[in-house]
Write a structure and sequence with these properties.
about 300 residues, alpha+beta, Helicase, Ruva Protein, domain 3, Tetrahydropterin Synthase, Chain A, three-stranded antiparallel sheet
Amino acid sequence: MAFTAKDVAALRERTGCGMMDCKKALTEANGDMDKAIEFLREKGLAAAAKKAGRIAAEGLVYAYENGNVGVVIEVNAETDFVAKNDSFVAFVETCAKTVAEQKPADVAALLECKASGADETVADLLREKILTIGENMNIRRFARYEGHLVTYIHGGGRIGVMVNFDTDDATASKDGFKAYAKDIAMQIAAATPTYVRKEEVPSEIIDKEKEILTAQAINEGKPANIAEKMVNGRIQKYYKEVCLVDQAFIKDGDLSVAQYTDKIGEELGGKIAIVSFVRFEKGEGLEKREDNFADEVASMMK
């Protein structure tokens, strides 16, 4: 499989490795991006592949709460200027309210819903906004929770987080719980966990991680028995990076998020458990309309 300068640029962006290392990895992997990432990690050149590509698309991540219902939604547009347009923001809010009220299963179902507070469908309103604002727009994704929850928006709509908790009504009504819940949402925004707890990590992901780490240790010249101990230690470190409850709490590094949660539960006289979360980052994984970085790499490769 052949590869292009754009592939080299994408691999460099995802791994943070040097251009020539990325070119060699793609050559070794016959152009396969995932195998190239594995190659770089086995050589100890890449700590881990970044979860997403370059953050490039514009628009807005928006959160809406009404009682025990919460929604986080991402709507994309072509320019950052539109994200500050009052008409665009009002449209995004209408979409969020429609999700809260009508529980659509996905974006396609949302587009067919009659928009909250309007006679038109969401699709009709979207077409109208594209015509009046003059930019292409797209409702990309949303999440809806019911129960004891918190929403949090960071960076004026760049990152949106929603967390669902299992606790009793008395505990959830206390000010201490609200402060705790916001702390957890801010943790997710800052530390980008992938899972709530290690039991949720698919076994095939751990198996692949062990395979890469074992090759890495052997390439470092470690004997097999030492490599196995190193891998087990590094897997525990991996859990602390990707699992929310195992992460160090950002406001007190001596506590894990799980320990902080237990501490607040005791102080409030109840039990608290983190059930689930979503974290949307605007434009996550979407490509720019123009990417001159690939051209820059192409000129360097000549």
